[in-house]
Design a protein that fits this description.
The chain is an alpha/beta fold. It has a single domain, classed as Alpha-Beta Barrel (TIM Barrel). Helix content is about 45%, strand content about 15%. It contains 10 helices and 9 strands. A 6-stranded parallel beta sheet has the order 3-5-6-7-8-9. A 3-stranded parallel beta sheet has the order 1-2-4. The structure holds fe (ii) ion. Fe (ii) ion binds next to loops. The site of fe (ii) ion has 5 residues, from loops. Belongs to the metallo-dependent hydrolases superfamily. CpsB/CapC family.
Length: about 260
């Protein structure tokens, strides 16, 4: 199976992701080995900090990445990971953001170092400026905002607002904090995950292209092949084609839910 990674910092030298050309080559070769054939390049855009000039540099580097990735038979699409904060209205007014290329979808995040209460208090407000412009927010790594355990009602509220919910492969693989994995598993069991992506930052360590490993882990934990394929390939494909996503409705066996966390 081929995978589509809709969240990754593969475009080198422009944020805290891949550092240079050499590392970009290594990262792309790992992505190819993992069966990734399409990447949305999503460099960090921080509302209030990222300038129009920065945006031009990022677009140029994404174009460099497109050329480089084609030698690995990987297609790259333009995007960003927009940090929502009190300055988002102004940043969006100024056009400092990049939706997924030729689509209405835009990857949005909140500061993961802030307390969960801050996320609960402000995030939906900040989302409004994205939605008013007609974009459909994809919420990046939702499992990372809930430091004391997931609030499924709040995630359902985000889904009801029309948001797409993304979690990271690192959380599926148990490579982050234990609470992130617990949150991810609860979201998966509640059918509240629409897409899984790598949030790649490096060519070694935790945040690497690891979609095949995430697929294998999902199967090992008792999720169906159909569910794993939907989250790692089917829905990502809908997003890049500007189509509606499919809402999952799967159930793990009682045994798997009880013993395979
Ligand atoms: Fe990211």
């Amino acid at each position: 199976m081929s995978y589509i990674d809709i969240h990754g910092h593969y475009a080198w030298g422009i944020d805290d992701g891949v550092k240079d050309l050499e590392m970009a080559k290594k990262t792309l070769s790992i992505a190819a080995l993992e069966g990734i054939d399409t990447i949305v390049a999503t460099p960090h855009f921080t509302s209030g900090k990222t300038t129009k000039e920065d945006q031009e540099k990022m677009i140029a580097r994404i174009n460099d990445l497109k050329a480089l990735a084609s030698t690995y038979n990987i297609k790259v699409l333009q995007g960003c990971e927009l940090m929502l904060n009190k300055d988002s209205d102004e940043a969006i007014e100024k056009g400092i953001y990049l939706p997924f290329e030729n689509t209405k979808y835009m990857l949005c995040e909140y500061d993961v170092t802030k307390p969960t209460q801050s996320f609960l208090n402000h995030f939906d407000d900040y989302l409004r400026s994205v939605r008013i412009k007609g974009y459909k927010p994809i919420i990046a790594h939702v499992e990372r905002y809930f430091h004391e355990g997931i609030d499924l009602d709040y995630v359902q509220y985000l889904i009801d607002l029309g948001c797409v919910i993304q979690i990271n492969t690192t959380s599926v693989l148990g490579l982050g904090l234990p609470v992130h994995t617990q949150n991810a598993m609860k979201l998966l069991d509640a059918n509240m995950v629409h897409v899984i992506a790598t949030d790649t930052h490096q060519c070694e360590g935790r945040r690497v292209p690891n979609m095949q490993k995430a697929y294998d882990t999902l199967i090992d934990k008792g999720f169906s092949k159909t569910y794993a394929e939907l989250l790692l390939s089917g829905n990502p494909n809908h997003l890049i084609l500007n189509e509606e996503i499919e809402y999952p409705h799967y159930k793990r066996s009682f045994f798997a839910r009880k013993f395979k966390h």
